[in-house]
Amino acid sequence: MNARHKLRRLAVLAPPMLWLGLFFFVPFLVVLRISLSDSAPAIPPYAPHWPGLGEIGTFIRALDIENYITLLSDDLYLGAYLSSLRIAATATLLTLLLGFPLAYAMTRAPKVWQPALLVLVILPFWTSFLIRVYAWMAILRPEGVLDQVLGQLGITSAPLNLLNTEAAVLIGIVYSYLPFMVLPVYASLERIDPALTEAAADLGATPLKRFFLITVPLAMPGIMAGAFLVLIPAIGEFVIPDLLGGSDTLMIGKVLWTEFFANRDWPLASAVAIVMLLILVGPLLLFQRLADTGRRA
Amino acid sequence: MKRFRFPHFLALILGLAFLYIPILVLIVYSFNASRLVTVWGGFSLRWYAALFNNQPLMDAAWLSLRIALVSASVATLLGTLAALALARFGRFTGRTWLAGMIAAPLVMPEVIIGLALLLLFVGLEAGRGFWTIAIAHVTLSTCFATVVIQSRLVTFDRSLEEAAEDLGAPPWRAFLAITLPIIAPAIAAAWMLAFTLSLDDLVLASFASGPGATTLPMRLYSAVRLGVTPEVNAASTILIALVALIVVSASLMVKKNLLDTRR
């Protein structure tokens, strides 16, 4: 590899590397540092233990884990982490239950329909996330569209009062993240050779057996990718629990937002973020491996 | 041969209905003459008129548009470079780092990215506003742009590039004459995705913005928090129409390009 060749590669590689390093990686070091400082009623509202070069020793001694102790000892935070995980996991499962049949039906649709169907599934993802969540506010609110339709049909007689409940948060997550599930599942279903299920049918396998022994295992990479694409961002979701959830729907993204914007406790908000990252690091690494092998294959 | 049976058709219809009914409800009610969101008072354009007379909202829309134009362009450039590195350089030092920094923001909760960026900006004592929001959006959109362009780069026939280089074209020339025209639709798609991501973002902008810089989603969010209003319905309908126009024309463009390369 000659010098010019190396230089050329560097010119391609350096800009994205530097940008993401500076604006994605370095900020986490800053968060880590501030999570280890005291909150202070000043602007900015924290008292950093910022080391001069000769003061590393003092710096280390001054770090304190007080914010992390607060996180562990207050039920609010532990409860918020746990209920975020629970809500995100439930929503991921529901998204799969809804997304899989849709993706499956898309692969069965006539070939000429498929590009149009793909665009139809992707289109909502391109329209504003905030607007799509807002649309559900109008549907779920008392005397809203859902209550009116169900009332007219005589199915319900009283308002369902779904807005500001956990059910509304689940609906919001499933709705917003559905395309993220359908697209990878569709991609992996589409690659399955129909000869495989036909051979199984010839050998006497029932449709149910063919589905669970051939189709589902072969679609697993897509299902996993879809599950991570829903689960990881859903755990830290802020907009959906804020607009559709009630005061009793605890989610950690909302707690972080409140600590930061309402209570102005930046060090505690940073500690909340660091703990959330620690929870997410396992799924993130798995997702990255999946994404990288998927794209190289 | 696999057949398309009634249950499949039903799954398609129900799935698409779930995706589109909420959006349709929003659009229909934006033309409602009544201020009461749940009562149909006849067709009217009054909320659209109110919208255009709402100066703070118009200012916010203009700010969002400028941020989206700048951040989409920078993100597409960075995304193209990152995609080239990931798709063409094989195994290189730092590949895992780059791939990781591309994949992580795709799924990482936005509150974490936003908080981290804000603390960096405060640490650097950067004045917050237009540029800090733009930087935040570039960081997120670069990752999406990379994925879109990279998937195009790995699927096209590399022998074309190799032939050009064998015939003595310097690499930059092979890139401009062969690679760039082939990946152009992906670059256009990446730019549009970055543009809509920026136009739509609430969380990153809320963290990265300073006094005086309020983007459209931030303005809509504070209106929405107070409840459902027909004016927001009108603003939403305009945004949806804009995005639908962009996506449909983009997919037609990509389709045409596919037909061209197949010929």
Describe the model.
The complex is a heterodimer of chains A (297) and B (263). With 297 residues, chain A is an all-alpha fold. Chain A has a single domain, classed as MetI-like fold (Orthogonal Bundle). Chain A has 13 helices and two strands, in the order H-E-E-H-H-H-H-H-H-H-H-H-H-H-H. Chain A has a two-stranded antiparallel ribbon. The radius of gyration of chain A is 24 Å and the shape is globular. With 263 residues, chain B is mostly helical. Chain B has a single domain (54-262), classed as MetI-like fold (Orthogonal Bundle), CATH 1.10.3720. Helices cover 78% and strands 0% of the residues of chain B. Chain B has eleven helices and no strands. Chain B has helices at residues 6-30, 46-52, 55-88, 95-107, 110-123, 130-155, 159-166, 171-200, 203-208, 216-225, 230-262. Chain B is globular, with a radius of gyration of 22 Å. The two termini of chain B are 28 Å apart. Chains A and B meet through helix 1, helix 4, helix 5, helix 6 and helix 8 of A and helix 1, helix 3, helix 4, helix 5 and helix 6 of B.
Topology:
The complex is a heterodimer of chains A (297) and B (263).
Chain A: H1 3-35, E1 38-39, E2 46-47, H2 56-62, H3 66-73, H4 75-108, H5 114-126, H6 129-140, H7 145-152, H8 166-190, H9 194-202, H10 207-235, H11 239-244, H12 252-262, H13 266-296
Antiparallel strand pairs in A: 1-2
Helix pairs in contact in A: 1-13, 3-13, 4-8, 4-10, 5-8, 6-8, 8-10, 9-10, 10-13, 12-13
Chain B: H1 6-30, H2 46-52, H3 55-88, H4 95-107, H5 110-123, H6 130-155, H7 159-166, H8 171-200, H9 203-208, H10 216-225, H11 230-262
CATH topology of chain B: MetI-like fold
User: Whole-number average pLDDT of chain B?
Assistant: 86
Estimated share of beta-strand residues of chain A:
under 5%
Shape designation of chain B? globular
Measured by DSSP, the beta-strand proportion of chain B falls in: under 5%
Report the count of strand segments of chain A.
Answer: 2
Q: What is the number of helices of chain A?
A: 13
The major pleated sheet of chain A works out as:
2 strands, antiparallel
**Domains of chain B, number:** 1
CATH architecture of chain A: Orthogonal Bundle
- Largest interface, with Cβ-Cβ < 8 Å? A-B, 92 and 94 residues
Number of strands of chain B: 0
Give the oligomer, counting copies of the same chain as homo and different chains as hetero.
heterodimer
Average predicted local confidence, pLDDT of chain A: 85
